[in-house]
Amino acid sequence: MKIKVMSLSQVIEFSKQNNQDSYALISIRGYMDPKPKLEKNSTIKDKLFLMFDDIDYNIEKPPSENLRCISEKQANQIVDFISKNKDNVDTIIVNCMAGKSRSAGVAAAILKFYHNDDTPIFNNNKYIPNMTCYRTVLNAFFEKFVSNLSS
Q1: Mean predicted confidence (pLDDT) in 101-117
Q2: Which of these, 29, 28, 17, 25, lies nearest to 47 by C-alpha position?
Q3: 111 and 120 Cβ atoms separated by less than 8 Å
Q4: Residue 150 above 80 pLDDT?
Q5: Tens digit of each residue's pLDDT (9 = 90 or more) over 49-64
Q6: Residue 34 gets which letter from DSSP?
Q7: Which domain holds residue 113?
Q8: Is the CB of residue 121 less than 8 Å from the CB of residue 31?
Q9: Mean pLDDT computed over 31-38
C-alpha cells in the first residue's frame, strides 16, 4: 500500500485523470474550506470526507472557539477506512487544503503503523506535519491493534 499526500487543487486535477492503479481517498477540509468538487473517477474506489481545522495543540491553542482539531472519533474513522481499503487499492491518497500539514500528519501516522517508517513525510521539506493529527491517528491505530489482540 502506497500513500500520497495532495493539496485540494492537486486532488481535483487528479480526479480528472484516468489512472491504471486503484485509489482510496481521505479528504480533509476545515470548516471554512470548500468541499472538493471531484470528477467521477472509477479508479477512486472509496472516499472519506472529514472536517477539522489545521490546529496543532503542540504549537498553538485555537484562536477561536469555531476552530476544531481532529477528534478521536475522526481518527477512528480514518483507521477503519484504512483497514477496509488497504488490501483493495494500490494507493491511499490523503488530501487537505495545502497538502502540507493535516494530510501529512495523517499520512505519516499511516506509514508509521503499516511500514514502521514515517521518514518519507518527516524528512521531506515539502511537509510540515500536524503533530496533533499524527499522534491522534497513530494512537487510534494502536488502540485498535491492542483491542483486536485482546478479543
Answers
A1: 97
A2: 25
A3: yes
A4: no
A5: 999 999 877 655 555 6
A6: P
A7: 2-150
A8: no
A9: 85
Contact 132, 69 (CB under 8 A): yes
In one letter, which amino acid is 43? T
Pinpoint the alpha helices (H) of 3-130: 8-15, 72-85, 102-115, 119-122
CA distance 11 to 27: 9
Residue type, 50: L
Q: How far is CA 101 from CA 19, 87, 108, 123, in A?
A: 26, 26, 10, 14
pLDDT for residue 4: 97
Kindly state the cell numbers that stand for 133: 493529527
pTM of the model: 0.92
Q: Residue 136: helix, strand or coil by DSSP?
A: helix
Mean model confidence pLDDT for the chain = 92
Our count of domains for the chain comes to: 1
CATH code of the domain in which 18 resides: 3.90.190.10
Residue 18 CA, distance from chain mean position: 22
**Strand order of the sheet with strand 91-95?**
2-6, 91-95, 23-29, 44-51
Q: Which of 47-51, 71-75, 138-142, 147-151 has the lowest mean pLDDT?
A: 147-151
CA distance 93 to 26: 6
